[in-house]
């Protein structure tokens, strides 16, 4: 159980990478891994805003 709590950012990082690939977004100034490891809450807010700005429902993800 503890291992899952410590590594949750890895799943978020993979999702961010898929989001960038789908919409052709640049990985600058930091890579996806760095962004999620250092400030996951900021990264999740960015991803939520990106989906909303594209008219998608963030609760449904990329589908």
What does this structure look like?
It is globular, with a radius of gyration of 12 Å. The longest helix is centred in the N-terminal third of the chain and has 16 residues, at 8-23. The chain has 63 residues and is mostly helical. It starts with a helix and ends in a 10-residue tail after the last helix. 67% of the residues lie in helices and 0% in strands. Helix 2 (8-23) packs across helix 3 (32-38).
Q: Uncertain segments of ≥5 residues (pLDDT<50)?
A: none
What's the count of strands?
A: 0
Helix content: 55-70%
Q: Characterize the overall form.
A: globular
Query: Which H/E pattern describes the elements?
Result: HHHH
Structural class by SSE content: mainly alpha
Query: Alpha-carbon distance between the termini?
Result: 29 Å
Protein name: Cell number regulator 10
Organism: Quercus suber (Cork oak)
InterPro entries: PLAC_motif_containing
């Amino acid at each position: 159980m503890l291992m899952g709590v410590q590594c949750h950012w890895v799943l978020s990082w993979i999702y961010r990478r898929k989001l960038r690939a789908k919409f052709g977004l640049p990985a600058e100034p930091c890579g996806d891994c760095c962004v999620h490891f250092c400030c996951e809450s900021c990264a999740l807010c960015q991803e939520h805003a990106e989906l909303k700005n594209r008219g998608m429902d963030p609760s449904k993800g990329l589908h």
